[in-house]
Design brief:
Order of helices and strands of chain B: HEEHEEEHHHHH
Order of helices and strands of chain A: EHEHEEEHHHHHEEHEEEEEHHH
Distance between the termini of chain B: 41 Å
Number of strands of chain B: 5
Number of domains of chain B: 2
Bound molecules: flavin-adenine dinucleotide, FE2/S2 (inorganic) cluster
Distance between the termini of chain A: 52 Å
Protein name (chain A): Xanthine dehydrogenase
Helix content of chain A: 25-40%
Strand order of the largest sheet of chain B: 2-1-5-3-4
Largest interface: A-B, 37 and 37 residues
Oligomer: heterodimer
CATH architecture of the largest domain in chain A: 2-Layer Sandwich
Pfam family, one (chain A): FAD_binding_5
Radius of gyration of chain A: 19 Å
Number of helices of chain A: 11
Organism (chain A): Gordoniibacillus kamchatkensis
Mean pLDDT of chain A: 97
Mean pLDDT of chain B: 86
CATH class of the largest domain in chain B: Mainly Alpha
Keywords (chain A): FAD, Flavoprotein, Oxidoreductase
Strand order of the largest sheet of chain A: 4-5-8-6-7
Structural class of chain A: alpha+beta
CATH topology of the largest domain in chain A: Uridine Diphospho-n-acetylenolpyruvylglucosamine Reductase, domain 3
Number of domains of chain A: 3
InterPro entries (chain A): CO_DH_flav_C (IPR005107), CO_DH_flav_C_dom_sf (IPR036683), Diverse_Substr_Oxidored (IPR051312), FAD-bd_PCMH (IPR016166), FAD-bd_PCMH-like_sf (IPR036318), FAD-bd_PCMH_sub1 (IPR016167), FAD-bd_PCMH_sub2 (IPR016169), Mopterin_DH_FAD-bd (IPR002346)
Shape of chain A: globular
Low-confidence stretches of chain B: 174-192
Radius of gyration of chain B: 17 Å
Chain lengths: 277, 192
């Protein structure tokens, strides 16, 4: 049971949602956008998040869209991770998302909810980072479309009242070779010890990480090092880890040293699978 | 809870093919409304955190953890609980294969397997494992549960199973699948 009350709104349009947020915010209701709602419910139950109004985005057709428009794959933020996996429209995204939670939970967890999660993993963002996708964001101030590299620095930078409506990805990326590997501590279902997603483009291998540092990331410096084929693969991997933007984390799932060991093995497997040795 | 009256709404939910009304808070979980307002105690509270699957029901034919859903979100959708299944092939196979011990996890497993058998009758080993990993059995009866699932899927694949499933159609509440990407691909009236 959620130990406090809130009102529930299900707007039908993007503009209505943004206007609702603005009004409820002005009334001091601390509104939250609500997509799958699984995080709001589970952390709300233990009083780690509070709101007096939730704004459900699932009835907004734009947030449920899945379409190809002029060579661009447009995906609504309220699509569930199961829908993305089943559709096969963007296999790298579908499969990376399929590593999150379990199948039944993924029938509810949404793409937008995962990338805007307060947890540190946000694994569904990795394919967006690898494919230089853009994010369509709307809010009381109007709508904008921003490259993911600008909008996301460990977490999505949203202004007050802004929410993710859709992501836009060049369709050609959906056909490139990819690898996505998730290693957990023990169980088949868990947050990651290490998640690596990678893509091979004509310029080289791109790689992004979750569970390794305190936020998901893709780093140009790491990729430059990994693509220096004149060096032995293991040396490239060792040196690229030194270029990570933050320390490797140590927690109940694994010490930093253990995580780094697993990471190196996964990176080697990934590079070999994509012909990057 | 202070000021709850001001938040009370009347919910109208389609549960097991019947329209039911309940006075509830928008913050109430589907699990709690099913159990406390409708007396449908088949869906079980376990972890209340999305981890165990004991609370699984079907929403428009899809397995859903009712502890991860607000009751208000289910308005306009078809909710099926284990009470809505009457002597279906899945239930019979669970009995035949001794696929439960204490039984606490059973309704959740049955609903998930029922959803799987209808949405993915041709499920391969990977898909079966992927879906079934959503539920935990504290008594660890996994082998027997797996045997029951394999048997259900085999029955569905055979023509004899079609008759059994047609019989289920009259016994189970059904719902259309509402997915923008898989319209019409799953639960359809003829075999649900
Ligand atoms: C059983 C279980 C296992 C899990 N395992 C994993 C895992 O292995 N890996 C992993 O990465 N995560 C995991 N998670 C976390 C889950 O992916 C996140 O909590 C995710 O946020 C849930 O998505 P949702 O759609 O339900 O989000 P919601 O609860 O709707 O929202 C989450 C947050 O994002 C905000 N938000 C939602 N949509 C938008 C939007 N469109 N624009 C702006 N803000 C928005 C909300 O206001 C809220 O703060 C797990 C969760 C559960 C319940
Ligand atoms: S009670 Fe819902 S998943 Fe455990
Ligand atoms: S039979 Fe006891 S929990 Fe599964």
């Amino acid at each position: 049971m959620i130990p406090y009350n809130f009102d529930y709104y299900a707007p039908a349009t993007v503009a209505e949602a943004a206007a609702l947020f603005q009004r409820l915010d002005a009334e001091g209701k601390q509104p939250l956008y609500y997509s799958g709602g699984t995080e709001i419910i589970t952390i709300g139950r233990i009083n780690r998040i509070y709101t007096e109004a939730v704004i459900d985005l699932k009835r907004i057709p734009d947030c449920r869209q899945a379409a190809v428009q002029s060579g661009k794959l447009v995906l609504g933020s309220a699509l569930t991770l199961s829908e993305l996996y089943d559709s096969r429209v963007f296999p790298l995204l579908g499969e990376t998302g399929a590593g999150v939670a379990d199948r039944t939970s993924r029938n509810k967890i949404t793409f937008g909810g995962n990338i805007c999660s307060k947890f540190i993993y946000r694994e569904a963002v990795l394919p967006l980072l690898l494919t230089d996708s853009e994010v369509r964001i709307a809010g009381p101030g109007g709508a904008r479309q921003t490259p993911i590299a600008e909008a996301f620095d460990g977490q999505l930078r949203l202004g007050r009242g802004e929410f993710v409506v859709q992501t836009v990805t060049d369709e050609s990326y959906a056909r490139m070779p990819y690898v996505t590997i998730k290693k957990r501590k023990v169980a088949a279902i868990d947050y990651p010890l290490v998640t690596v997603a990678a893509l091979r483009t004509s310029e080289g291998i791109r790689i992004a990480f979750s569970g390794v540092c305190a936020f998901p990331f893709r780093s140009q410096a790491v990729e430059r090092m990994l693509n220096r084929r004149e060096l032995p693969l293991r040396d490239r991997i060792d040196q690229s880890i030194a270029l990570f933007p933050a320390p490797v984390i140590s927690d109940i799932k694994g010490s930093a040293a253990y995580r780094e060991l697993v990471l190196k093995l996964v990176m080697e497997q990934t590079m070999r699978a994509l012909g990057g040795e | 809870m202070a000021g709850t009256d001001r938040y009370t709404i009347v919910l109208e939910l389609n549960v097991n093919g019947e329209m039911r009304r309940a006075a509830a808070r928008p913050a109430d979980l589907l699990l709690d409304v099913l159990r406390d307002s409708f007396g449908l105690t088949g869906a079980k509270p376990g972890c209340l955190n999305g981890d165990c699957g004991a609370c699984t029901v079907l929403v428009d034919g899809w397995p859903m953890k009712s502890c991860l859903m607000l009751a208000v979100e289910a308005e306009g959708k078809a909710v099926t609980t284990v009470e809505g299944l009457k002597n279906t092939a899945v239930q019979r196979e669970f009995v035949d294969k001794f696929a439960f011990q204490c039984g606490y996890c059973t309704p959740g497993f049955v609903m998930n397997v029922y959803g799987l058998a209808h949405l993915r009758p041709d499920a391969d080993e990977h898909t079966v494992k992927d879906w079934l990993q959503s539920n935990i059995c504290r008594c660890t009866g996994y082998e027997e549960i797996r045997d029951a699932v394999v048997s259900v899927l085999q029955r569905r694949a055979s023509s004899a199973a079609d008759a059994a499933v047609a019989e289920d159609a009259t016994n189970a509440a059904d719902g259309a699948v509402d997915s923008p990407m898989r319209k019409g691909s799953a639960a359809n009236g003829s075999d649900t």
